[in-house]
Amino acid sequence: MTRGRGGEPGFARFELCYTSAQLQRVAAKPFGAAPDPVLPSARRVTPAWEEGHLSQELAYPVTSTPSQVAAQPAPPAASERRLAIWILSVSHGLNHVQGNIANLLYPLMMADLGFGYFQIGLLSTAYVITTNGLQALCGLLTPYVRRPVILGVGNCLLALATAAAGLAQSYGQLLATRLLGGVGSSPQHPIGSSLLANLYPEARGRVLALHSTGGNAGTLAAPLIVSALVFFFDWRTIFLIVAVPSLLMGLAYFLLRDRVPQTTRKGHGRRATWQSYLACLRNRNLLLVSAIQMVGAAGRGQGIDIAFLMPHFVNDFGLEQSVAALLITVMQVGGLFGPLALGWLSDRWSRKAVLMASLGLSAVTTAGLAAIGVPGPLLLLNLLAYGVVVNSRLTLTQALVADATGAEHADAAFSLYFFIGFISAPLWTLIIGWVMETHGFGAGFTLMAASYLAGMALISFVQESRPAAPLPVQG
Fold it and tell me: How far apart are the C-alpha atoms of 212 and 224, rounded to whole Å?
């Protein structure tokens, strides 16, 4: 056995692109022996003790037996990865349905429970702040609890909160259900994105786009579901009906409990978890990409643009409510296909270049909405293009976060990214609302267009680095 500084056993690290059987052959050979001809790329990497500290990468002792190496969990099979992405995407869609049905049912709820517009603002703010604020802490759970379990508990809690909203007898009880729903919703973005980025390292742009598209599909489906159910049921029953499939999808996560191995090692403990957060806070690329998501006014799937476009179409253009809703649907259709197309493109070209183009087109199409004064074909085309590019920023920035941080720090990285990128949403709502109230719709959307130019300025400082990843990392 080799000895390092202070007499510690030496560690030789091997790249993680080999199968378990290949690693067994490496570990079985005497230290310093010639490389196995079957493994032309296998080589001894600089021992960790020569670097003065244990690496954060997985290390194998040079005295490991084949059984010790074989004990390392194998990457999940392709079928398990497909099951994971479908459960995550469908539950993300239901997550967005539950987040939006209250907004659509408020007129009926106001009459029954006796509250006004200010109380609606409090309900929306409570949900958004709870959801976005707790995202920063989700990475603290992963060393102790498997990711599918965290997601399953969160989605079940959200479903129960949705059902409880249908049983609320007062405004205070309704507010409590929104706060509880925000807690349940909080793991979906950071933990779900981290899980998918590690299951599909070779196709991060595409799978993160599919996850985002699931959420956008839920946002699109919410008004259709409510419109269909409101003819047959009261608002309380609608909450109860929507909660059932959401609860079932939450329970489906427990099917993944023993199928998707952990990335974060349980032995690391609390200190190493905080060290992971500190490492992410020192990661320049991660902070820049998070800031790009933060400075953009819309594109988080939380409806800031819809909140202002609907009154604009009805009040300024004089359109019927149903026609205005159809225009919003055109925009949301673009949001379904845009992330998939640009995510696929970013896996083949430079993510930084694709994001730069997306931000530039976001500014152009947002300014177009500010300038178009009458409804017509130009407005339809502009809305479709706007939906494609504005809703793609979330997917592209997530892929850059995954590229900038290793699997060891993925949970902390995505927790911080979603906290930084989403916490500005309530502030943007207030700012844009005040500008529109005092200077008109055009001024408000011109300011939104300028926010994407600020994002372009930030991305120029990002150093793109996409690590090679031939096999999925455990996670």
Answer: 19
Q: What pLDDT was estimated at residue 147?
A: 87
End-to-end CA distance of the chain: 32
- Phi, psi torsion values for 3, nearest 5 degrees: -125, 135
Share of the chain above pLDDT 90, in %: 25
Whether 125 and 249 have beta carbons less than 8 Å apart is answered as no
Give the mean pLDDT of the chain: 77
Residue 470's pLDDT band (cuts 50, 70, 90): very low
Q: Cα(120)–Cα(114) distance, rounded to whole angstroms?
A: 11
Global pTM?
0.65
The domains of the chain, with CATH numbers, are 5-70 (no CATH), 78-459 (1.20.1250.20)
